Amino acid sequence: MSEFQLTRTLDEHAADRALRKDVLRGMTRVPKELPPKWFYDARGSELFEEITRLPEYYPTRAEREILLERAREIAAVSGARTLVELGSGSSEKTRHLIEALPALETYIPVDVSESALTGAAEALLEAHPGLGVHALLADFTAPLHLPESPGPRLVVFLGGTIGNLLPAERAVFLASVRAMLSPGDALLMGTDLVKDEAVLVAAYDDAQGVTAEFDKNVLAVIDRELGADFHTADFDHVAVWNREHEWIEMRLRARSAVTVKIRALDLVVPFEEGEEILTEISAKFRQEGVRKELAEAGLELSHWWTDAAGRFALSFSVADGSVDSVAVD
Prior knowledge:
The chain is of the alpha/beta class. It contains 9 helices and 14 strands. Strands 1-5-4-3-6-7-14-13 form an 8-stranded mixed sheet, with helices on both faces. It has a 4-stranded mixed sheet with strand order 2-12-9-8. It has a two-stranded antiparallel sheet with strand order 10-11.
């Protein structure tokens, strides 16, 4: 018999408090910045789905290729009876793993959107009678307390989302994941890889302008939720490759001097012509760098899979001491 449970760790006002805090901090610092999580209201989510279908945006296709090719191998090395997905969204890509895991009993999706959690659970339970789904309405960047579930557990963090965190934030995040794991548990993580600068910039600044609209959507969110008077036409979308840090930076650049009022915060924000808001970093990785960051968190890289073109990688790592040898493919 299929079973669905939902545990709420965020109250109904949590998102509003977080948005206010992030906007106040981001609009009063130099340089200005906003966290990328605020792209994703209903319109932002639609735009991102459109981005994943663009010819320039390869990461989603590359990661799906690996999952389709390697799902049974991932299932075999993990032996997972519980699958935990951080930032689960629609759970679309994870279904390849769910179908490949013969011993799977419990799926634990973690997301800040209750509608996404319930919608994904309904579809999964219809397709997989007998699967237990225990959803967590939670922010995966904060320490998590997972519900009781059978081991081994496989924690998955897909989409290259790890790249949206700064190095210090990645260290904290990976340590928190390690704290969830018992001997025999593992982490499957998606990482976009360093490649030609032109390919990277095009993926974040497509010819049709969909990514530009997506980037500017964060201003529409602030206008709606906090009574601001941003005008998206006052800002240009910019995507820049930072060679030193090996990450893409998405920015919104003021086309002229402009003053914005954010009524809910009683805040007036002046912009000079050309002044920018950093809205996202998207770090790109190399295998040895991933291995080092995992090791510093107490995780041992044991498998490394890429798509045929070597654009994207899935890394499989285990808690230190839970395997006898390391075999990187």
